[in-house]
Amino acid sequence: MSKFSFAPPDLQVDFARKLNTLRPKYLQQALAETINGLDITKIDSELAKFVPGSDLSVMAAAGLRAELIFAVPSILQENPELIGYYRLLLGYSQKQFYGRDSGFGVGHFKSMEEKGRIGATAFADIEDMCEALCAAASQLLRGLKDFDLVLPH
C-alpha cells in the first residue's frame, strides 16, 4: 500500500455527470439548434459590432463560426439559457459569475441560465453583457493562439 492517499475524485465524477445532463441544454448542440432558427446576417452584423475583426479572422481561418465563443444579443434573446454555455466556456463558476459578493455584478442575468427568462433589467443590459463576454472571449482566443483551433470532425 502506498504511503500516499488521495481523496476520490468525486467532484470530477459529479461534474462529468452534470455536464452530460447539461449538454443538450447549454453546450454546442443547443447553440447550433438556436442558430438554425435565426437570421445569420443579423448574427454576423452583431459579431462585427462586438468582436474585433482580427478575432473574426482567426475564427474564420480555423473554419469556425465566431458565435461558438462570442455571445451576441440575438442568440441570447432567442435562447437565454445559452448564457450558461458562454459562462462555462470562459471557465466561470456560477458563484464567481453571478455571486452577490464574489460576482461580476451580473446577478440579474442568472434567471436567463436557470429559468430561460430575460428580466427587464437583463434585457436592458444585454448589449453590455455581450460586450463584456466578447471581451473575455477575445482574451481566451489570444491565450489559445499557440493551439490549433481546427476541431476534429
Automatic annotation (TrEMBL):
Transmembrane segments: none
GO molecular-function terms, A-Z: DNA binding; magnesium ion binding; type II site-specific deoxyribonuclease activity
A Pfam family hit: RE_XcyI
Keywords: Endonuclease, Hydrolase, Nuclease
GO biological process, any: DNA restriction-modification system
Protein name as annotated: XcyI family restriction endonuclease
Source organism of the structure: Paracoccus yeei
